[in-house]
Amino acid sequence: MNKNRLEAFSDGVLAIVITIMVLEIKVPHGDKWSDLQILTPVFLSYVLSFIYIGIYWNNHHHMMHTATKISGKVLWANLHLLFWLSMIPFSTGWMGENNFGAAPMALYGVVLFMSAVAYKILQTTLLRCQGQNSILAKAVGNDKKGLISPLLYLMAIASTWVHPMIAGVIYVLVALMWLIPDLRIEKIIEADKTA
Amino acid sequence: MNKNRLEAFSDGVLAIVITIMVLEIKVPHGDKWSDLQILTPVFLSYVLSFIYIGIYWNNHHHMMHTATKISGKVLWANLHLLFWLSMIPFSTGWMGENNFGAAPMALYGVVLFMSAVAYKILQTTLLRCQGQNSILAKAVGNDKKGLISPLLYLMAIASTWVHPMIAGVIYVLVALMWLIPDLRIEKIIEADKTA
Amino acid sequence: MNKNRLEAFSDGVLAIVITIMVLEIKVPHGDKWSDLQILTPVFLSYVLSFIYIGIYWNNHHHMMHTATKISGKVLWANLHLLFWLSMIPFSTGWMGENNFGAAPMALYGVVLFMSAVAYKILQTTLLRCQGQNSILAKAVGNDKKGLISPLLYLMAIASTWVHPMIAGVIYVLVALMWLIPDLRIEKIIEADKTA
Amino acid sequence: MNKNRLEAFSDGVLAIVITIMVLEIKVPHGDKWSDLQILTPVFLSYVLSFIYIGIYWNNHHHMMHTATKISGKVLWANLHLLFWLSMIPFSTGWMGENNFGAAPMALYGVVLFMSAVAYKILQTTLLRCQGQNSILAKAVGNDKKGLISPLLYLMAIASTWVHPMIAGVIYVLVALMWLIPDLRIEKIIEADKTA
Question: What is the ipTM of this complex?
Fold first, then answer.
């Protein structure tokens, strides 16, 4: 069993998921700048979800790169992850069209939480498939961010009962937590090499 | 003739088919949890169809993996399969939006039946192309599930005259029949290797 | 310059073109079989266009397979072909929703004609790139079907002034002209090998 | 880290971006040629945006082809480019549906400007990753067009205060500036080889 088609299929689904969210940004009928104003929450939701799908694609890319074997279980664990990620456009749309209301904000957290859980399941399934001394096992190490993120999503979901914007802040912070070190770690590795 | 582009094109079509079904889950105008309730049948239909496309993608992946030669006939048999699978989003949408009515449930069965027949045709065409002693011939063996499934779909179609939910139960059972052993067989193979 | 990405990009565009036509088959609100009746022309248009895109994909696959070199001009000739093929969903939709009226039937012919011309330009550009003694040059030979098809499309366009269904019959015949020998030629080659 | 999946994912996103613009060309209800007339600006916008995405795809193809190493920063710089290109369908739709009004014309320029900036960032990130003596560094050379284009987009945005069509003319000229020499340079290289 080779991993090429799994990667190709995942790339296809993620490319579509990241792009169809754009269809949710409906072209306004007026032709003034002010006609775009009502699209602000839809646009901001799109940016956030684009970054999240980007993070998942990047992590998926790195994880699969180190994997040498895949199994039928890996295929299904991967489909399970794609299922939850395919829910992101819908929850993004609901969040954006309702100006970040409490229920849509909570649902967005539920989808992010389920995606994080599905990613963890995929990681575990892949690890079992490779053996404990594999490069993947070393690369994963003690995956702190992968454990903290779902907890933060749960907190965000709970926080919508107080105020939906708390959840919004948490979602942005989690995204930055993944995005920034991603860029910083590279720097350290590079610095390490030239040292 | 190489099989890479056939796989890439099939992956593309299946990735789109599995993802555009999400567009059928229309964002509700209200922002309460109760506004999501009417989407329950649409969501359940989506889950079922997602699993079916997943099963087809998995089986397609395995079958093509063992194939060493393809012909013009294989290309068309493959397009024929993709045609019926491309009908799944429409029939899923009709089923979901009409709360699992009799006619939509029957149409869903017709599409599943035609997809199963198309898969069988593709398998036969591929087998002829590889020769009887090929790995594929051995891998297919006596493909019981591939023969029982279409019969169960026909039963499901007929059952909609009595009650549409009988068909629903059959569709779920067939999906589980493919999904569960898929995961179990891997276990046996693994156990076999370590023994 | 390698041809892999050109093939991958073309596969992506064609996979999307062939699949988004399905979005034109709008889910009816009623849940009776009779509610599907009005979709008959839309469905028939979809089948015809699916076959046409399938033919283009197959021919593109074969042509590119023999090509060893590509140039910037080939990339643009390919994009030009994809442009006209991307017009097929729109013209299919117009044709299907208007029950095969004269103008939609003629427009469908125009799109098919332009696609055929674009394919010819791509072929010529590729040939110039490979040299006259290439495998591609031999494979193309005297491409009768590639020359007759555009003439038949022009005839079809003209015929819509008499009756739009004449054009419909021509479109079906041209599709069969490409589809059937495709399957037959393979047979001859196979017979030739075993002889 | 390999560049194959980055290319595959970018191809997927660009293929979808170039194709979903077609969904903006809504099928008219009437079946007369005159019913298509109101679609003229939408169609012209589509042609222009198709060419722009084509230019980006071509340039992306060439740039990535010479790259030998990629980093996490490259992945994000690439996603950043894809983000702005994914805004093209929306701004194309707004421009087309409002008959090239001032604000939509300016927004189109903003999206093109941001895409050009994002491309430049990707180029710089890639260059840093390859080292100054790489093939990419030589291929980029003094990238005049890459520097003039964003300036022209800014001029176009400003010109919409005078008349939106000035911007339209600039967008067409920039597209031709990229399209025509692309084809001409190939000719010179070919002539050079045969000399």
Answer: 0.89
- Cα–Cα distance for residue pair C165/A41, rounded to 1 Å: 49
Contact yes or no for C174/C153 (Cβ under 8 A): yes
Q: Choose among C123, C126, C115, C46: nearest CA to C83.
A: C115
C9, C17, C94 ranked by CB distance to D57: nearest: C9
In contact, B34 and C34? CB cutoff 8 Å = no
Check CB contact of D192 with chain C, cutoff 8 Å: no
HSE on the CB side for B88, CA within 13 Å? 32
**What is the distance between the alpha carbons of residues C127 and C134, in angstroms, rounded to a whole number?**
8
Q: Which of C60, B184, B117, B89 is nearest to A72 (CA)?
A: B184
In degrees, to the nearest 5, what angle opens at C-alpha D84 toward C-alphas A24 and D41?
A: 70
Domain range enclosing B170: 4-194
Chains that touch C (3 or more CB pairs under 8 A): B, D
Length of chain A: 195
Angle, alpha carbons C136-C137-C143 (nearest 5°): 100
Query: Are the C-beta atoms of C21 and C92 separated by less than 8 Å?
Result: yes
Residue B191 has pLDDT above 90, yes or no: no
Partner D contacted by C76 (CB < 8 A): yes
Tokens at residue B76, please? 């068309």
Given its phi and psi angles, is residue B101 left (phi above 0), alpha (psi -120 to 50 degrees) or beta? beta
Neighbour tally for C87: CB within 10 Å? 21
Q: In the structure, what pLDDT confidence band is assigned to residue A191 with cuts at 50, 70 and 90?
A: low
Q: How many domains does chain A contain in total? A: 1
CA-closest candidate to residue A16, choices D15, C24, D83 = D15
Round to whole Å and give the CA distance between A6 and C103.
44
Q: Following DSSP, what letter does each residue of A167-178 receive, concatenated?
A: HHHHHHHHHHHH
Asked whether residue B192 carries a pLDDT value surpassing 70, the answer given is: no
Instruction: Return phi, psi of residue A181, to 5°.
Output: -60, -30
| Per-residue pLDDT tens digits for B21-48 | 998 899 998 889 999 998 999 999 999 9
Ranges of H-type helices in chain B: 4-20, 40-66, 72-85, 88-97, 102-130, 135-140, 144-159, 164-194
B47 CB neighbours in chain A (<8 A) are: 83
Q: Which pairs from A96-99 meet CB under 8 Å and 24+ separation?
A: A96/A24, A96/A41, A96/A42, A96/A43, A96/A44, A96/A45, A96/A46, A97/A24, A97/A41, A97/A42, A97/B27, A97/B29, A98/B30, A98/B31, A99/A41, A99/B31
Contact indicator for A68, A92 with CB cutoff of 8 Å: no
Residues of chain B neighbouring A13 (CB-CB closer than 8 A) = 15, 18-19
Q: Which residue of A has its CA nearest to B52?
A: A79
Binned at pLDDT 50, 70 and 90, residue A136 comes out as: confident
pLDDT at A54: 94
Compute CA distances A140 → A123, A176, C191, whole Å. 9, 20, 55
**Cβ B167 vs Cβ B109: under 8 Å:** yes
Mean pLDDT across B114-138: 85
| Structure-derived torsion over alpha carbons of residues B105, B107, B113, B119, reported in degrees to the nearest 10 | -120
**D151: burial class by Cβ within 10 Å (0-12, 13-18, 19+)?**
exposed
Give the pLDDT mean for D148-162.
Answer: 95
CA distance D123 to chain C (A): 18
